[in-house]
Structures are given as structure tokens and as C-alpha cells.
Amino acid sequence: MNTKRRVAVAIGALVAPVLAVSLPAASASAHGWVTLPTSRQEQCAEGVVDCGQIKYEPQSVEGPKGLQSCSGGHAEYAELDDDSKGWKVTTVGSSATFTWHNTARHATANWQYFIGGQKIAEFDGHSQQPPADVSQQVNFGSYTGKQKVLAVWNIADTGNAFYSCVDVNIGGTPGGGDPGNPGGGDTCTAPAWDAAHVYNGGDSVSYGGHTWRAKWWVTGDKPGTTGQWGVWEDLGACPA
């Protein structure tokens, strides 16, 4: 019996490394993307625009730092680079609040925002782990009209970044007309959203230049981060 037991142990020791090599390595299931104003991959996830694989994983547009690509260089997400796809354009004023929803909170070097390859804003991450939702007020400077904003989340401890494109109409009308009033989208009549306030179904708030209506009781959930089936209904950009 002792001899048989020793043989079994020896065989087990030989097989174990083979099994360890054969098993697939665990991969991160999620990372982060811009939810407000509604980014291209958020529109895919919500079914606003007909998309392919990206609709299942809007958080996964990860690529090497320094790209100017909505798809992060992923061939399977190439439709994010297609400007003719009919993306929803969000009317904003001279600035807008951009919110990242992070489902894997990587230590952050910084967040950067670009229009036409020109950097318009940067926020230091101090190599710290961010909260699940990060909001930043981005000033568009002299840019007006319809623009594509590339939002970049640069990770501190890797050579990669996450990419998210947002189509905006700076200083335009809610219907997407020509630029006019530079305050367009900023004049909200509903009270500003308060994270500590308790809202009941039917209550309206303003956040990020949009008016939102609660579908049911809620507190703490930020408008624009709960998705199509979440508690907040986007009633559109505030009138100019």
C-alpha cells in the first residue's frame, strides 16, 4: 500500500504543473467608460445605435497610451471610429460635466480630453484608485458646433489607457442646429441633483446640462450612470 501511495503522489506531482499551464489565465472582466454625456459605447450598450461586440462590453476599450482612436485600436470595436454611424449628439454649453463609470478602479495617472487631436483638459489622478464614478467639468474653450470629444483615462501602473468618444454640439440648440447661444444646454429649471437627497418617482433634477426624471424612489444614484433600464430617465438637454 505504501508503494502504491508513493506512486500516486508522484503522478499527481507531475500532472499538477501540466494542469496549471493548461488552465486559462483569469482576465479582468470590466474597466470603465464615459456614461455622461452619452458616449458612443454607452449608446451601443443601451441599444440607441446598432452595434456589434462593443454593446456587450462598453468598458473594455483599452489600448496603448497615446492613441487618438475611439476604438482604442481594437479591430472588433472599429465601428466606434465610424463618424457616419448616426451617433446621438448631446447639446452642451461652453463646458460640460463628463462622468466615467469605472467597474475596475485602476490607479490613475490622469484623465485627458481632446478635440481634433488638441488637448482641451487634463485632470491629475495622483496615481490613486478612483471612485466608481468620477465627474469632471470640461471647458471647451473656443470650440463651437458639433465636435467629437475623445476622453482618455491613463492608467498609472501600466502602459495602457481607456478610450471613450462623445459627440457634442457646443453652444447649439437641443435639436442639433447651428451654434448660437453659448449657454445652450446650461439653463436648467429643475433643481440640481443632490447625492444626499431622497427622490420619489416623478421628481425631476438637473445634472450635466440635462433634465432627468426619477422613475421610482432613489437616493445616491447619479443621473446618467444607471443606463437605459435604470432609475433616471433622460429628458434631454436643458433649453438655451
From TrEMBL:
<dbReference type="InterPro" id="IPR003610">
    <property type="entry name" value="CBM5/12"/>
</dbReference>
<keyword id="KW-0503">Monooxygenase</keyword>
<dbReference type="InterPro" id="IPR004302">
    <property type="entry name" value="Cellulose/chitin-bd_N"/>
</dbReference>
<keyword id="KW-0378">Hydrolase</keyword>
<protein>
    <submittedName>
        <fullName>Lytic polysaccharide monooxygenase</fullName>
    </submittedName>
</protein>
<keyword id="KW-0732">Signal</keyword>
<dbReference type="Pfam" id="PF03067">
    <property type="entry name" value="LPMO_10"/>
</dbReference>
<feature type="domain" description="Chitin-binding type-3">
    <location>
        <begin position="190"/>
        <end position="235"/>
    </location>
</feature>
<dbReference type="GO" id="GO:0004497">
    <property type="term" value="F:monooxygenase activity"/>
</dbReference>
<dbReference type="InterPro" id="IPR014756">
    <property type="entry name" value="Ig_E-set"/>
</dbReference>
<dbReference type="InterPro" id="IPR051024">
    <property type="entry name" value="GlcNAc_Chitin_IntDeg"/>
</dbReference>
<dbReference type="InterPro" id="IPR036573">
    <property type="entry name" value="CBM_sf_5/12"/>
</dbReference>
<keyword id="KW-0560">Oxidoreductase</keyword>
<dbReference type="Pfam" id="PF02839">
    <property type="entry name" value="CBM_5_12"/>
</dbReference>
<feature type="signal peptide">
    <location>
        <begin position="1"/>
        <end position="20"/>
    </location>
</feature>
